[in-house]
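Incident log, support desk, overnight shift.

02:14 A customer reports that sequence design results differ from what the structure should imply. Their input is reproduced verbatim below. On-call engineer (initials T.W.) acknowledged and began investigating.
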């Protein structure tokens, strides 16, 4: 699509995401541009929550939501590990709890088509790891380029992908072997392998 046809969806000064609407098709483009790292920091989650509410409020203008990333080689690296470390050190349980609730609410909203039957597509280039992969799985469809890689690295540092990895994956997968391979190995698998498992479509 020609970028000149995209219009800012709503006059909110987002810093971690970008929303643009194609008025001809009703496709809403949601671009992740989190910084300083391509992960879900707290501000990014808060902006995704606001965006989800806007999508529901303006559902009559939207035919589909397409999520991608402004980062060339990363869709999302998932959780904000630096923040986790700092908040654990300072015993800031409230911030960590709020972060977890936001993650769950956003996954639930996308997984349920924004509670208003608006379909969603995750277009993945590069790495989608941990919570980034779970977020992609919450979309109705995942389209990946041939360089994309997906994985749950949590096992490598003694954690489990707890934001819905197993049920989200199982909803799309052909059998459970691919699920177990990803969750238990901690490896990142190429888009071609996940295409064979029925998880992603490969864009050309």
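02:41 Re-run completed on a clean worker. Output:
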């Amino acid at each position: 699509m020609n970028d000149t046809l995209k219009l800012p969806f709503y006059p909110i000064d987002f810093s971690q995401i970008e929303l643009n609407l194609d008025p001809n098709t009703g496709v809403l483009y949601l671009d992740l541009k989190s910084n300083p790292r391509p992960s879900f920091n707290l501000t990014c989650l808060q902006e995704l929550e606001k965006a989800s509410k806007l999508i529901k409020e303006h559902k009559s203008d939207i035919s589909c939501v397409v999520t991608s990333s402004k980062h060339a080689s990363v869709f999302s690296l998932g959780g904000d590990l630096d923040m986790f470390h700092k908040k654990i050190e300072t015993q800031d349980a409230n911030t960590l709890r709020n972060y977890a609730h936001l993650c769950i609410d956003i996954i639930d909203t996308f997984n349920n088509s924004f509670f208003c039957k608006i379909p969603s597509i995750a277009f993945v280039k590069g790495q989608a790891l941990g919570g980034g992969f779970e977020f992609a799985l919450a979309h109705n469809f995942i389209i990946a380029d041939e360089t994309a890689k997906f994985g749950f690295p949590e096992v490598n540092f003694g954690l489990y992908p707890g934001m819905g990895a197993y049920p989200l994956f199982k909803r799309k997968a052909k059998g459970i072997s691919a699920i177990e391979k990803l969750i238990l190995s901690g490896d990142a698998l190429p888009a071609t392998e996940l295409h064979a498992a029925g998880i992603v479509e490969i864009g050309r």
